[in-house]
Specification:
Elements: H1 3-29, H2 36-42, H3 44-73, H4 82-127, H5 132-185, H6 188-222
Helix pairs in contact: 1-3, 1-4, 1-5, 3-4, 4-5
Length: 223
């Protein structure tokens, strides 16, 4: 197996693993909207941090593999084929997408933590008052929590949809690469198709000429 094939396989495996870990990380991180106390009570905070470290490590490995593929693409002694260059470019684009997605997810998590801290402070203020106004505020907080849970569900569905689109894109890209490889390994196929098309056009012209001559003879016979 060549160096390129080995790196290509490793990239595909890491990309699939990273996509799965990122989806799990996003789901677990969305739980912070329910408050830091709940995270600490269930142990989710520790799992979330461990998962964050895992996706960071996977992204670093992907970057290293892409750097090695980039080095191969500039090898003048053994230049890669066009299909290899396209695959290397695709891996680089996937890495950039994953890096942006991870940064965006971390930003959302930090915003959720800030919001959880704010909501925790509001809850403490509400608990300080024992009046009818406190009951009204607690009811309003219940509506806010329902909205947060609905938002969490929508975010989880969005991440699942993004993962499915990513898998479909990788599948279609693999099919395109295999088709390009077939065309490169069978250079005479395009010539054969062109010859068939040319012969079909020639036969159509001949048939048209014969029909035209027959039509002219028919008119001469009639008139």
């Amino acid at each position: 197996m060549s160096t390129y094939d080995s790196l290509h396989r490793q990239c595909r495996t890491l990309e699939s693993l990273f996509d799965t870990k990122l989806t799990s990380y996003a789901r677990l991180a969305s739980a912070v909207t329910r408050g830091q106390d709940d995270l600490e009570a269930t142990g989710s905070a520790e799992r979330w941090k461990d998962l964050e470290a895992e996706v960071d490590e996977l992204l670093d490995k992907l970057r290293e593999l892409n750097d090695q593929l980039s080095t191969l693409s500039h090898d003048t002694d053994n230049p890669p084929s066009q299909s290899m260059l396209r695959a290397i470019q695709r891996h680089s684009e996937v890495y950039q997408d994953y890096a942006r997605e991870l940064r965006r997810t971390k930003t959302n998590v930090q915003s959720a933590l800030d919001q959880a801290n704010l909501l925790s402070g509001v809850r403490n203020d509400i608990d300080a008052y024992k009046s009818s106004a406190a009951d009204a505020l607690l009811s309003e907080r219940g509506h806010i929590d329902d909205s947060h849970r609905m938002t969490d569900d929508i975010l989880a569905q969005a991440y699942e949809t993004r993962s499915e689109f990513s898998r479909q894109r990788l599948t279609l890209s693999g099919i395109q690469t295999r088709m390009s490889g077939v065309l490169h390994t069978m250079p005479g196929m395009n010539n054969l198709i062109a010859m068939v098309k040319t012969r079909r056009r020639r036969d159509a012209i001949i048939v048209g000429c014969i029909v035209g001559v027959c039509f002219i003879f028919l008119l001469m016979y009639i008139f």
